[in-house]
Design brief:
Layout: H1 3-27, H2 38-53, E1 59-66, E2 69-77, E3 93-94, H3 100-112, E4 133-135, H4 137-140, E5 156-158, H5 165-170, E6 183-184, E7 187-188, H6 195-203, H7 221-234, H8 238-250, E8 271-274, E9 277-280, E10 299-300, H9 302-313, E11 317-318, E12 321-322, H10 326-332, E13 348-350, E14 355-357, H11 360-363, E15 372-376, E16 380-385, E17 390-395, H12 404-417, H13 424-427
């Protein structure tokens, strides 16, 4: 080794000694420095462990951040019951409807570029949606049920107006509100179907109510239509658009629409509870490699989704990368639908692809007014509390869990009860 190389090695060695503690503090700050009680944060882990012990799900990943720093990050339980591998922090989850905020971001990008208006009728992009019908009131409650024979007449009336992009984003279109992943009202996704293939079939299904008169959740298909709108407006397949415009810029390397043919080594197992026992659930039928569901097609990991949530919490920017303007994000998290519209929860309005807390007291919640976020059907969830500058995320794989809404509320309570201080921003 020559003298110059030796000097460089010595400099590198001492620099590493100085930098390493700084990096450690940045990655793992004491909870108290960010305004949390370390002891109280353990209640989040206890909440998850109770569900694991009760066979609600086999494992979970939980992540809490404040002021762009992670304050709590925990993996519990196992990845799957077959191998009993310990749950990993970078486990891959089917995030289902947590795909919807990604669709909303995509639409707002098209709005910013002047290619889409929120007030546009969907028929501007997909002509088959021009002349829709609506189920007559006596038929509306039997959609998707076994009431009557399959040949029973269904009475419809014309839609009083066309459905708009905003209607679909806010679940006020009456569009496929009782449908679920894979098949609804006689519409099924075939093994080779794309978004474009399904649009004429979806347009033939009557709406559940007149547009704008109610709020009712469209589990999958409204946001699949929005994904198709993005394809048409951008000229790109939806998966390619999302990767190029959102995932790659944010560094979300473990978020994708399609599983590899050989499977994924970090994919968490999907289960449902039957008589107190966990049973495996088959993969969703729309995961076919060509159907990129905006309603629930993404796979992701907790740290990846944190990047998306941080971008939204920071008004459209993550570091030096800006995806949306601050005004676009403000519009997303505004309560377009009040809690007084039939179908909404007291104290909770609805924005563009996200729910918005408008009255914490009416909602019986510890999160602040203006808190926003959404969840997934397989028991995943995120929220952004802008007043307290907190992001909370948990990911599990529990299908058809009837108590998932109460559990998500319990998670938010567990996060917020651990807050004991305003944090460093207000102490400076």
């Amino acid at each position: 080794m020559n003298r110059r190389s030796a000097r460089l090695l010595i400099v590198w060695f001492f620099a590493a000694i100085l930098v390493a503690p700084m990096l450690g503090r940045a990655e793992n700050p004491p909870p108290e420095r960010l305004g949390f009680s370390a002891e109280r944060l353990e209640r989040v882990a206890e909440l998850m462990q109770r569900q694991i012990d009760a066979n609600v799900f086999p494992g979970a990943v939980t992540l809490i951040a404040r002021d762009d720093e992670i304050v709590f990050f925990r993996a519990q339980g196992v990845m799957d019951l077959e191998t009993r591998r310990p749950m990993q922090k970078d486990a891959v989850f089917r995030i289902m409807s947590m795909t919807k905020p990604v669709v909303a971001v995509s639409i707002m990008m098209m709005v910013e570029e002047g290619k889409v208006r929120l007030t546009d009728p969907v028929s501007r992009f997909i002509p088959e949606f021009r002349d829709l019908t609506v189920l007559a009131p006596q038929n509306a409650t039997t959609r998707g049920s076994n009431a009557g024979s399959e040949h029973a007449p269904v009475r419809t009336v014309p839609a009083e107006r066309e459905i708009t992009i905003r209607d679909l984003l806010t679940h006020t279109a009456g569009f496929m509100t009782t449908g679920g992943p894979g098949e609804a009202s006689g519409v099924a996704i075939g093994p080779n179907d794309s978004l474009a293939d399904l649009m004429p079939r979806l347009a033939a299904v009557p709406l559940d109510f007149q547009p704008g008169t109610q709020w009712a959740y469209s589990g999958q298909y409204a946001f699949d239509v929005l994904a198709r709108v993005v394809e048409i407006a951008s000229g790109q397949p939806f998966d390619a658009f999302v990767k190029a415009r959102i995932l790659d810029p944010l560094g979300m390397k473990d978020t994708f629409f399609q599983l590899p043919d050989e499977g994924h080594p970090r994919l968490a197992g999907l289960y449902r509870t039957v008589n107190g026992t966990l049973e495996p659930v088959a993969e969703m039928p729309f995961v076919n490699g060509v159907y990129f569901s905006g309603g629930g097609g993404l796979f992701s990991i907790a740290e990846d989704y944190l990047k998306l949530a941080r971008m939204l919490a920071n008004g459209g920017r993550l570091g030096d990368m800006r995806l949306l303007s601050r005004k676009s994000v403000d519009l997303m998290r505004s309560a377009h639908v009040p809690d007084t519209l039939p179908g909404r929860t007291p104290g909770e309005g609805y924005g563009l692809g996200v729910r918005v807390v408008t009255d914490p007291a009416a909602r019986n919640t510890l999160v602040s007014k203006g808190t926003w976020g959404w969840s997934g059907a397989f028991n995943t969830h995120f929220f952004i509390d802008p007043e307290e500058r907190i992001i909370g995320i948990f990911m599990t794989q529990s299908a058809f869990l009837e108590s998932r809404w109460q559990f998500r509320d319990d998670f938010e309570t567990a996060v917020m009860q651990a807050l004991i201080d305003d944090g460093p921003r207000d102490r400076d």
